[in-house]
Specification:
Length: 215
């Protein structure tokens, strides 16, 4: 994935603007301070948009769509990416769509109901994934998710309670880097493959031959 600072900045600012616009809007319960601190969803939005992820997938818990959904929808709208949000079978689709419409993001998200471990098998070479560890079968999800080995990012939230780590599951693969942060209930960021913005630049040397002529 090629890094785009412009897309990253636009997604970051759009997420912050949504928070400010809906800070006191009771009809948009996912807005307000929930998007900003302590989750820092504007960072997640910028990360997805900046890396120009073409296929993004989010696995939610029984709580349904959350601030991460809004952040990734903003990124998808910015880069015209495909964003699939996998919902628990008991979630009300119409209610979820209504929440997204508050932010004018209903067209940026494909809502899919079903068992995430089954639904996610339909998608290959995922560029950006967000997984909530409050989903009870997240460990199996870690093993079967098909990410883009040439460059992808997996964000795992709510890891503190379950001591979960996607990075540990795939640590044997080459080009894997993982970092955890104490944001919310714990978040883990795993990068697979080398992003174009992170590849070391090869140094090139030119050899010159100087020829002199004497009378």
């Amino acid at each position: 994935m090629k890094w785009s600072p412009q897309d990253a900045m636009q997604a970051y600012l759009h997420t912050l603007q949504l928070c400010k616009t809906h800070s006191n809007d009771e009809d948009c319960p996912l807005g307000t301070r929930t998007i900003i601190q302590p989750q820092c969803m504007e960072f997640i939005s910028a990360l997805a948009a900046g890396n120009q992820a073409k296929l993004m997938v989010q696995v939610t818990s029984h709580q349904g769509i959350n601030p991460s959904t809004i952040a990734l929808a903003v990124a998808a709208k910015q880069t015209k990416a495909r964003f699939i949000c996998i919902l628990h079978q008991l979630q009300d689709l119409e209610n979820c769509r209504a929440q997204l419409s508050c932010y004018d993001l209903e067209d940026a998200v494909e809502l899919v109901q079903g068992n995430p471990c089954e639904v996610i098998m339909e998608f290959k070479n995922i560029d950006f994934a967000a997984i909530d560890c409050k989903f009870e079968d997240f460990l199996r999800l870690f093993e079967i998710i098909d990410v883009n080995l040439r460059g992808s990012i997996v964000v795992v939230s709510n890891i503190l309670e379950w001591r979960a780590s996607f990075g540990e599951v795939i640590k044997g693969r080459t080009g894997v880097e993982c970092v955890t942060r104490s944001i919310g209930e714990g978040i883990e960021l795993t990068r697979i493959g080398l992003m174009s913005c992170c590849r070391p630049q090869k140094k090139t040397f030119k050899r010159f031959h100087v020829i002199t002529f004497e009378d």
